[in-house]
Amino acid sequence: MLRRASTPTASILLGIVLCSLCLGCSWVIGDTPMSTVHPTTPEGRLIQSIYAEITWIVLGIFVVVEGLLLFAILRFRQRPDDPSVPEQVHGNTVLEVGWTIVPVVIVMAIAVPTLRGTCALQQPPAADALTVHVNGKQWWWEFEYPDYGIVTADELHLPMGRMANLELRSDNVIHSFWVPRLMGKRDLVPSRGQRLWFTPEQPGWYVGQCAELCGASHAYMGFRVKIDTPEEFAAWVEREKAPAKTSMSDPGFLAFMQAGCIACHAINFEGSPARQKVGPNLTHIGSHTTLAAARFENTPQNLAQWLRNPPAAKPGSLMPDLNLKDEQFAMLVSYLQNLR
Ligand code: CUA
Predict the structure, then answer these.
(1) CA distances, 284 to each of 230, 248, 267, 336 (Å)
(2) Which of 4, 26, 51, 187 is exposed most, by the fewest CB atoms within 10 A?
(3) What share of the chain is helix, strand, coil (3-state, %, to 5)?
(4) What is the pTM of this model?
(5) Ligand 1 atom closest to residue 213's alpha carbon, by position in its atom list
(6) Rounded to the nearest whole angstrom, what is the distance from the C-alpha of residue 140 to the centroid of ligand 1?
(7) Atom of ligand 1 nearest to the CA of 212
(8) What is the CA radius of gyration of the chain?
């Protein structure tokens, strides 16, 4: 009997220990791209400090409550040689006042830093912040830089050391912009402008993800953020502002028009008829590291697979299967890969 009863208990305990070890490892190593516990912005660290404080408070409560519980279970357990009923107690003023005041103190200890942090993060951004319009689409991200006239998708470039002021918009459903290692998440609510600002301090790539269930391809609504050094960012701006290396007479552009891509996508060059904003702007698509909202790495094979049947790769995709012929695929893939 004892053996049977203890097996599930042992399994649960083992599970808890293993989970704790795994979580502890990711905390210590900090190499998890979607972890919030090692933020690299002052604003992210402010949120993390509140989270850490609450975690320690909760841990303290757990230890005290479980300690008292274990003490009571062991100290006052029924003994075979003692059939008596324990003393029955009702009402204890000191205890009752105590367990009213202590939770109030705990809640205040959580509420004060939380409110202070919330208010600090709701202030207007710095005057010299870089403004980017982040437009949530189904299911991809458009990034517009009004100061530079740049429109791109899937990869958000930001300069290190300068506050980024993201103006979040959606013209469809609610999405949520989240780059765990940079900053907390914020919803993109249709008909309501939202804002999120933070100051990147560490160059490199960051993983972002839509964090609000928004439809069939919510899980595939990812993006990347590249924090550039100021020099890298200036060079990127110059590259992005440059027109696409193509022309009206380019056979690749003709294939792009014949396939019907022109109905939804823009490619910027002098006199370009491709100006639609339904899908991502493809002017420099060849230089992106990923495709289709970070669904795939940007390789010729993946691009071909994506073009062949978009709804199969991303359920609900607005990009239809265009029923292209093999030679059209080859032409389009090499054309788009060369738009750098
Ligand atoms: Cu957009 Cu989930």
Answers:
(1) 21, 16, 8, 8
(2) 4
(3) 45, 20, 35
(4) 0.85
(5) 2
(6) 8
(7) 2
(8) 28
How many Å apart are CA 87 and CA 64, to the nearest integer? 24
- The span from the CA of 219 to the CA of 210, in Å, is 7
Task: State whether the beta carbon of 212 lies less than 6 angstroms from ligand 1.
Answer: yes
Question: What's the CA-to-centroid distance between 211 and ligand 1, angstroms?
Answer: 6
Q: What is the spatial distance between Cα 261 and Cα 339, in angstroms, rounded to a whole number?
A: 15
What is the length of the chain?
340
259 lines ligand 1 (CB under 6 A): no
Using an 8 Å Cβ cutoff, are 318 and 138 in contact?
Answer: yes
Instruction: Please identify which residue in the block is written with the tokens 């160059």.
Output: 203
Distance between start and end Cα atoms, the chain: 71
> What is the atom index within ligand 1 of the atom nearest the CA of 174?
1
Burial class (CB in 10 A: 0-12, 13-18, 19+), 153: buried
Instruction: State the DSSP code for 137.
Output: -
Q: Is the Cβ atom of 253 under 6 angstroms away from ligand 1?
A: no
Give dist(CA 216, CA 251) in Å, integer. Answer: 35
Per-residue pLDDT of the chain (340 residues; tens, 9 = 90+): 444 545 667 777 887 777 776 666 555 555 678 889 999 999 999 999 999 999 999 999 999 999 999 999 999 888 888 888 888 888 999 999 999 999 999 999 999 999 999 999 999 999 999 999 999 999 999 999 999 999 999 999 999 999 999 999 999 999 999 999 999 999 999 989 999 999 999 999 999 999 999 999 999 999 999 999 999 999 999 999 999 999 999 999 999 999 999 999 999 999 999 999 999 999 999 999 999 999 999 999 999 989 988 999 899 988 888 888 888 888 999 999 999 9
Answer yes or no: are the C-beta atoms of 39 and 184 closer than 8 Å. Answer: no
